[in-house]
Amino acid sequence: MNSIQVKKKFEAPIQQVFDLLAKHATYNVAFAPIQVERIIDSNDSQRPDGLGSVRRMGIGPVKPLREKITLMQENQRIEYKIIQNPLIKHHLGIIEFEALTPDSTLVTYTIELQARVPFVNKLILAQLKSAIKLGFSKLAKSV
């Protein structure tokens, strides 16, 4: 399985960082011009972007990617997978949170990917890694 991993230290408490990255709208800032929109709410009215929620991603009216939150453990881990995509066989995103001190948090973002056309795996992952590094740098400045 092909995968990438990005680690970023945030100078903020774990709860604040978790709450930031648990919101779909956050990714509009992190990955602009890509737009993220929640299309299915989770069953948790306190956290509509939580477990079971689905977001679509793209630019303007064209948002072909769908991601579903498959695991959400408060202040520990978020997992999502791409659904209904004919080009991707397997895509799992894992975001892990670790309190380094009361006011700093390490976030580890891992993506596993298997495209239906094998030779594009490394290209897609390289682009994702670059986008995540840039996006996390933007977000780290906002907390």
UniProtKB/TrEMBL annotation:
Native source species: Acinetobacter tandoii DSM 14970 = CIP 107469
SUPFAM superfamilies: Bet v1-like
Record InterPro entries: Polyketide_cyclase/dehydratase (IPR019587), START-like_dom_sf (IPR023393)
Signal peptide residue numbers: none
Protein name: SRPBCC family protein
Gene3D superfamilies: 3.30.530.20
Pfam families xrefs: Polyketide_cyc2 (PF10604)
